[in-house]
Amino acid sequence: MIRVDGVARTFGDVSVLDDIDLRVDPGEFVAVVGPNGAGKTTLLRTINGLLDPDEGEVALDGDRLSDLSSRAVSRRLATVPQDTHVGFSFRAEEIIEMGRTPHRSRLDWSDDGEPVEAALERTETTHLRDRRVDDLSGGERQRVLLARALAQEPDALLLDEPTASLDINHQIRVLNLVADLVEEGRAALAAIHDLDLAARFCDRLVLLYDGTIAARGRPETVLRDSRLADAFDTETAVTHNPVTGTPTVAALSERPDRDSHVHVAGGGKPGVAAVRSLWRAGFEVTVGPVPTGDAAGELCQQLGIEVTTAPAFQRPDDALEEAVANARKADTVVVTDGPGSQFVAEATETSAQVRTDARKSVAARVDGGQVDDSGVALVTAVLDQIGDGSDSSHLGKNTLHK
Ligand SMILES: Nc1ncnc2c1ncn2[C@@H]1O[C@H](COP(=O)(O)OP(=O)(O)OP(=O)(O)O)[C@@H](O)[C@H]1O
pTM for this one? Predict the structure, then answer.
């Protein structure tokens, strides 16, 4: 088990890690995620003893790292580094045999070779055993270093970007292998840039940002945490991969900042198209009511947009009241011909308050409620409606679909 207690580390006067607490139990695969320079490698190097923390301590199976010899640490913990350059022209098999060093006594260098054979097999590198490591591709070298870590027969694994040089097939194979090793009772901590892979294979994510752990927990929770956008300095949308069923994250390009609020009435395909284009164009958007489980409602949840929902085929009294309140606050209301829109249309058409308060009335009935794929016509109509024609002229597919 890996335990990190109150670890701090500075380089010069720059604090890279500050009061980090972390625990990885046997049978757990944890990913450290975070932007470039967040301190992921520094954290891993502090855990394997290559760097001393300025404050705090690291323990392996309850023993303080500072009390263990480097051989003792290497018997418990193996590292697959980010930089796979070895520096000497060894054969792959010789590199993997180095993983046995912590287990050999100084006098007896005999070894049954079984762990090396097993490591070659599990990492599918047997065919590379006689090749010189500096002739191998980056991905092949990365698998050889994973094999060296396995030959070490550790209880815990540290992996720094283990899939960085791997093709999509080997990414999955290597992470499946790590997941299998974890299921056999090891603990694994990996710095992983690819949030989708981290979410798919790891039990927990730890978001490292600004020297501290900004969020931690199950992948779905961390990836939906608002601090993810701060950490990566970009808005993100989290959806579910229909094949793996695990979260997938899209970084979104910067939205223009428009100080206008649009309420969208109606879900389904027209609602999705309207929400997507208005959101991308930078409006504050509210939506509703839409039927429970509606695609527009799901999109809103992924984008963090306020949406009111109600069971289909029922008059959505409470949801309608809320939606009309949002429509009343909005600068304009877009009524699409998606499900649920008729209620707001009725309410806004009969509500003098909505008509007068929101500059309001029902604003954009673009193409009879249909929204074209690019959304340009809709966004232009909304800008015209609220008297903000300033930059509608350059709105094009690219602006809206980045
Ligand atoms: N030996 C060092 N001397 C000075 N600064 C260092 C040293 N090692 C790391 N740093 C700095 O510490 C910060 C964290 O680096 P680190 O490599 O841990 O980040 P990372 O999260 O692994 O980044 P990446 O995702 O780019 O691999 C960076 O600003 C880096 O420049």
Answer: 0.76
